[in-house]
Structures are given as structure tokens and as C-alpha cells.
Amino acid sequence: MNKQPFSGLKVWDMSWVGVGPLTARYLADHGATVVRLDSSKRPDILRTAPPFQKGQPGLDNSMFYGDYNCSKLGLGLDMAQTQGQEIARRLALWADVLIESFTPGNLAKWGLDYETLRHEHPSLVMLSTCMQGQTGPRAHYPGFGNLMAAHSGFYAVTGWPDGTPVPVYGAYTDFIAQRFTTCALVAALDHRRRTGQGQYIDVSQFEAASQFLGTELLDYAVNERVADRAGNAAPSAAPHGVYPCRGEDRWVAIAVEGDAAWQALKQKMGAPAWAEDDRFQTLSGRLTHQALLDQHLGDWTRDQDGRALMYLLQPEVAAAPVQSQSDLYEDPQVLYRGYFVELEHSVMGRVPYNGSQAVLSQTPALLSRASPCVGEDSLYVLEQLLGMDPAEVDQLVAAGVVEVSASGRKGGRTAHTAAG
Amino acid sequence: MSQPTRAAAAQSQAGPLAPYRVLDLTTERGWMSGKILADLGAQVLKVEPVGGDPGRHRGPFYQDRADPEHSLRWWFLNRGKRSITLNLETEDGRALFRRLLSQTDLLLESFAPGHLARLGIDHAQLMAEHPRLVWTSITPFGQLGPHARFQGPDLILTALCGSIFLTGDPDRAPVRVSVPQADLHGAAEGALNSLFALYHVSGGGSGQHVDVAAQLSATRALMNATPFPKLENKNLVRQGIWAESGGFKRRAIYGCKDGHVCIMLTGGVLGAQTIGALLEWAAADMTVPAILLDTDWKALDFGALIRNPEKAELFTLLSDFLLEFFMLHDKATLYAGALQRRVLLAPISTVKDISADEQLIAREFFQQVEHPGIGEVRYPGPWAKLSQTPLPALSRAPTIGEHNEEVYCGRLGLDRQQLVRLAGAGVL
Fold first, then answer.
1. Is A67 tagged catalytic?
2. Does the distance separating the beta carbons of A212 and B192 come in below 8 Å?
3. How far is B147 from B28, CA to CA, in rounded Å?
4. pLDDT digits over B212-223, tens only?
5. Looking at beta carbons, which residues of chain A come within 8 Å of B109?
6. Are A255 and B155 inside 8 Å of each other by CB?
7. ipTM given for this complex
8. pTM assigned to the model
9. How far apart are CA B37 and CA B43, in angstroms?
10. Nearest 10 degrees: Cα torsion B403, B408, B410, B415
């Protein structure tokens, strides 16, 4: 197998929750050695959130945390202690990349801000990501992607025209921001490779997320049009909606763009009389009489299976079952791509990780290890990566500065190969 | 990549990707990919079919004038790129394409799988001829597999990726974000994986093919949902204005005087700060029920609620109380109060609210871009601040074939007569 793009790259991941850890995971899956900061005294909040293996809460039992942190080494460190801060600083000097998502200003207290670090380590690339950026009147306001998705406009355009806004599931903007942070970071690494220069990167998740409503922001700027909720309707397609299927909470999505697709749909339905209604023969007619059209179509789909309808209608008519999470594990295309990757976790056992959404033909992503328990790789990181003396490490463990997990990955200390 | 000296000269104003040349053949579904790279300073050349990219005909339009030069989606997603026209269905067109390819670090395309092969463009042969080339394909499902040839417009992708199953009111059909999102996830994923492959090349590795599936890119946005069937033997379901996790429900969306706000109610250390501050705040307007004041919210983290499911009822009581309180105030007042009190609350903003947002304005997020014959247009702007290689100033999207002469004559060395002849023959 080819060497991975980031083989040899050293990353100190001091971030937590979503965007920072997800960014670091991209690098880890593509060959970087990533050390992730952990602590059971101040755990990443994701460690306290579900899903838990067999529903049992526990810091080492959360796949919410796990899914964002595979391919990384876990270091348990108490940042409240001076010696903990000193180890964090040593790792910053060891690393090529430092990723952090503290409330702006926090790192300066520990001498880990970019202005301090760059004097000793000018080639460091440091990424700070927070909700609204490092500067400006609201730089210090903490938050989560769920709130940012509301604040940055996504909830207002989700739901039915006759109803209230509804949340998009999850911390939606995290999954926009993580892609922009990763692009900026890798671009900066490429610049560093050419020039030797490091730099500091400030990504506001608000600004990154706004890129996915950019056309609508422009539409407001020039036309004063305010994007609103449209249910599942589209301005230039009908039928275009989600229709009931056989079973509880089962649905099929059908999107008919253009007259050829409409003719194909009629034929696939067996040319029912209702579909020959003059009002449905043009797009403008179908848009005008959408409610009636949806009713007829829903009557046709109601007793059928969503996935079977997809195979009946595709590729001439765009159609697909509305998939639940368990459906994803049976989707033939998802299986073909090998998207979910099962890895053996020290506490949870075999668990499925979201895999790579892209296949690189020469250097495919490699989920090299399950996510760490708190402190699982502490000994390896300090002794093998930082070259610390085992006796000194033992003292730090005894003093509670360094945390070593009970499960201690493979005993921790020896014969432990880093990712990549 | 061009020579390092040239890179050094260009770097400071031009963004971190200044030396890179991108040939952007994408259809509308892939435009975002080249846009991200152009924002980072890459030289992105958009290749349009003769007559212009078909995606230019989809609204919204500037002043609602349906005109391929007035497409706002084109404006936003192709800003900072240059444009040439090229007819890949002609032999001359394909010959020009091959010449351009020899000056290209990254090719982006989002055609249906097999489309380029039908035009006689042999991917494998071109990759062999250009061993350092990165070729990125962005499609709904990927290049191969049982669904590879299926149609994947936004509604279909959001159904298959699992997101709409989780979105909307429980008593109505699943619902998508009304602004199409799935292709944007796919295209952004295409941008970052292209950069991984380019970084591999700049480190001495070979070029390669990057095959992106938009369906899976949108699946990633399910956050923590996908492991549930395997770990907890269940599916999460949509909760409308409620949020459910760890087995307890609390209201997420609340009406207020002029719209809606969203709050995140959890127990534990983080949630207790918000709840305590909210109750203290509300006490100025209303009588707070004693049971809410007496509850130790800090102790009610996910673990405690799973062990004591009856305690979840407290969050319902809290939600009902807050519903009355928020109706007394407007979005701006509530957000200002939340900032002051460190309450985890956000306004449900419209694009109008965002356009006036003081934080975005303070960070100079909105930038004026000159459009000839139209004047200055206010764009949502750069999305990262880089200390050494700041992102270049925004520039407008190109008109159809605006850079034909610059590219075909300047870069490929054709003379103007050849240009006229090729245009006459429908090649460009």
C-alpha cells in the first residue's frame, strides 16, 4: 500500500466536541499521528452522551465520542495542574499542527496561544475553531452546533409553510464547518511545505456554515427575498415530495423534474386514469394542482415498499426510500462502498464507525484504530513520542497529572505502533 | 504546480493555494468544490459548454431577470473562477481539453458516471499520461455500485442519507431543508479530499482518482445517529420542535414576540448554568414554580436521567414554563440577554437577520464585489482568517467564456484567427 498523504505529520488535538475533533480525524484517517487530549475530570461532553454500548452510560462507552475520534491516540492530562500544562506545551512544540476549540483567550492563560508558541516554533500550523470566531463582540460566547444551525439560518428554512421552523437533526453546522476547517488547514500545510512557514488559522463556524446558504444570502442582498420554509416542494418540479409506504413511519421520496420523467412515472404506475387528467400534463399544471397530485400519488405508494419503489422507478424517475439509521446498514450502495467500518474498541467491543465519504484510488482512508478510552495511550505518547523517562511518567501518573486508562491499550507502554 | 519562486512571489496576497491550477468541469452539483479552492487562492478555470453552463438557467436571478448572466447561484458558487467555453463533444474540443490537462494539477468533474467515457475521454489513459494529476469526481452515489447510475437530486439524497427520517414533525411526513444541501456536502467533501491528494503529490507521491459520494457526505451530518441500531438496538426518530436524546425529551423551539428562538436544555454542568440563569432571568417577569427552583439540574446529566427516567418530567415542566416566558420578548432581546447571562440560546435567524448580524459585520464577513453594469453587490465573504496567507479579496464570477482569449491564446498559444475559426465551428 502507498504511504498515506499525512504519514509523518504530527497533530496535537486539544479540541473537543465536534468540529475540531472531526478535522483532526480526517488527518488521522489519512496517515497523521494524532494525539487527542482527554481527561475524566473534565471529559469531552460527547463522552457523556449517547449512543452508549448496550445503553450503558460511561466515559469509555460512548460512540458519540468514539465516532469522532478513531485513528487517534488518547492522552489523559489534567490541564488544571501546571505540570499538565507543561506537557501540553511540549506536545505543541513536538507537533506540526495544533487544533483547539477553547473559548477564545483560554490558551493564553497556559502560554499555549499562537503568539507565544510561534516564537519557539515558527513552522507550527495552528487552527482555532469556535462558534463565531476569535474576534468581534461575540467571540467569547460558547455554544453548540445545534444552536449555531438555528442562528445561521438553517432552522428558519426547515419545516412546512404552515408550521413552525423545526431543527435539522444534530449539530448540523458542525458538518459544514469541519470541511472548511480541513480545507484551510491542509492548504496551510501545503504552503508550509513550500515555504517552511507556519501560520494561525481562525475559522468561525458561523461564517463557514453561511457558505451553505450563500445563494440565499445573495438573493436577500440583491432582491430582498427572504428564504422561507417550503416543506418538500421545489420551485420547478412536481410531483416533488415524500409519500407514505407500507409499514409504520415508512416513506418514499419522489422527485419529478421535467415532462419526460412525468411520462415515465405514468408508465411505471401502469398509466392510471387519474394521471391522464389534463391539469397534470404540464409542469405549471402539476405545480398548481400539487395537493391533488400528491394525494393520488400517495394512494398509489401507500401499500408498497419504499426500496422496491426505488428499483421500479429508477433511473428514469428519481425515487428513493426514506432511510432510517438501520436501513443504512442494508443499503446496497452503502454496503458496496464499505462505508461503515467496524473496529474493536477496548471497552465497547466491535462497533461501527462512519467511514470515508470519498475513495482515494491510491491512498484510501484507513481507520487505523478504534477511538481511545480516556488515557489509553498516555504512556506511549509520553515515552515514545515525547521521549520522557518512564520514572518521570510514573510520578506524573501518581500525582494525577497524567491519566492512564484501566483498559490500558495493550498495556500501553511497549510494542505499540502509532497510526501511519 | 508552477515554480517555487513564482509561488513565493504570489503568496502573500493570493491565498495558500495560489500555485495550483484547477480545471473545473463540474455541473451545478459540484460548483461548491472549485469555489472553496478559489476562495483559498487556487487558479480555478471553469469549463462551460458552448452557450454556458446549463446550471446558469436555474433561479434565483438578479432582479428576477431570467438570464444566464444573472444567476445568483452561479454568482455565489463560481466567484473567483475564470471561464472558458469548450465543446467536449467535438474532436477539436477534446484535443484542447488534453492540452489544458497538461497545465492542470486538479481536475474536478461531476458528470454522471460514464458520461466522459462516452465522449471518448479515457480516464485511465489520461491518468497514465499525467501521473501527478488529481482527478476528482463528485456524484450522488460514487462511480460504481448498484445505484451508481440512479438519479440523485437533493430530495432523493436526503431521503437515502438518513437525514429527513430525523427531520420534521412526528405526525407529518419527513421534511428536508428547503434549500438543497446534499450536493453542497458532496462538493465540499470533494474539495478537502482533492487537497489530501494534492498534498500527497506535493510530498512526492503520485496523482490519483478521488471518487466522492454525496449521499455518504450527507450521511456524515447525522452526527451521533448512525451507531444507534448497533449499540442500542434502536432507531432515533424525528421529534419536530422537541429534542430527544438519552431517552428524555425537552422542547428545543419556542415562539417569541417576533419569531422563534432555540435553546438547548440539558442537565449536567453545562446545562445547569443555562437553566439556572434562565430561571433567574424569568423571575423578573414571572413567578417561577418552586419545583424548578429546587431541582439540582447539575446532577441531572444523561447518566442520571437514564438511571432515573422519571426525572425527565422536570424538563417538560421547565419547557412549559419557558414557553410563557419567551413570548414576553423578541428575538433580539432574548439573544442579548442570553449573551449577558451565558445562556445557551440562539435566535432562529432568517437570511435578513444574518445580513445585519453585528458579529459578522465586525469581522468584515460581508464584502462588496463589483459587477459591471450592475454596481456593487454585497457577498457573504471569506470564511477563514489565515495569518500568513490571507484569503484573496472576493471577485465576481465570470461571464460565459470571458477568459477564452486569455486562456486559449495566452496559455495555449492559439492565434486570434484560430480562435474565431474554432468558435465558428462550435468548438468554443
1. no
2. no
3. 20
4. 999 999 999 999
5. none
6. yes
7. 0.96
8. 0.95
9. 8
10. -120
